[in-house]
């Protein structure tokens, strides 16, 4: 059956009108190897494993049955199994190991600690640490949030609150007295569980509700306001509570500062002041002639 495998490949190639050079370019196999395959010079093609692999590739390209061609190729070499040398001398019953087994010095772990592996030991340590952390008070490992800073309008510095006057004092007695900017105040009911809140003190109005005053201020929300006259005297500087309305009169021009323009309405000489058009970051400052 010599010569049949190479002849079948050559006949199929010529039937498709392909030259060895063309086939070499398509399969990326050297033309010398392909010619040696067709002439069945197997040592020039390669070892027997490579010959059989090349035959299968040629059969796929030329549309031949690979099993027919493989049966015509030399059988692959199968090396006999070699006995494993375990380092034991041949002899009778008195066989002795020539080398010491590497596991001979491993201690016996068949006792109570046989279940403890490095992975299990790590899991046990993590569980114990989590249990101890759960028993500690929350304040020891949970950071306490710092209180939010109090934001004041530009150019205003916090000052100590002015003590309230007597309850029976007339309304106009403190009309021209300066009042401090908002500051923090602790609640009178004792300590609370959470962080201290930034609360502005409730200071008596520098100007009470006066419908005849040139400047009228109405707070829809809590809003800090400050009014100074032409000499720089502070006519009003305090936190207006939601729903509170005050009237301010003084030497003109007046300067008005509002710390919450979205929650404050202002009118000057009966005309509404568009605070939203002059505000910046919800803070407005305007001169009133």
**Major sheet: arrangement of strands:** 4-1-6-7
* Cα-based radius of gyration, to the nearest Å: 50 Å
Low-confidence stretches: 88-95, 160-207
Helix content: 25-40%
Element-by-element helix/strand order? HHHHHHHHEEEEEEEHE
Shape: elongated
Biggest sheet layout: 4 strands, antiparallel
Q: What percentage of amino acids are in beta strands? A: 5-15%
What count of helical segments does DSSP give? 9
Q: Which structural category do the helix and sheet elements fall into?
A: alpha+beta
Mean pLDDT over all positions: 74
Q: Report how far apart the termini are.
A: 121 Å
Looking at the chains present, what oligomeric state does this protein adopt?
Answer: single chain
Any chance you could write out the topology, listing elements then pairs?
Blueprint: H1 4-15, H2 20-27, H3 31-38, H4 42-45, H5 48-62, H6 66-71, H7 118-135, H8 138-141, E1 215-219, E2 223-228, E3 234-240, E4 245-248, E5 254-258, E6 264-268, E7 271-272, H9 275-278, E8 284-288
Antiparallel strand pairs: 1-4, 1-6, 2-3, 2-5, 5-8, 6-7
Characterise the protein shown here.
- This protein is α+β, with helices and mostly antiparallel strands.
- Among the domains are: 4-71, lambda repressor-like DNA-binding domains (434 Repressor (Amino-terminal Domain), Orthogonal Bundle); 176-181 and 200-288, no CATH class.
- Helices cover 27% and strands 13% of the residues.
- It is built from 9 helices and 8 strands.
- A 4-stranded antiparallel sheet has the order 4-1-6-7, with no helix packed on it. It has a 4-stranded antiparallel sheet with strand order 3-2-5-8.
- It is elongated, with a radius of gyration of 50 Å.
- The termini are far apart.
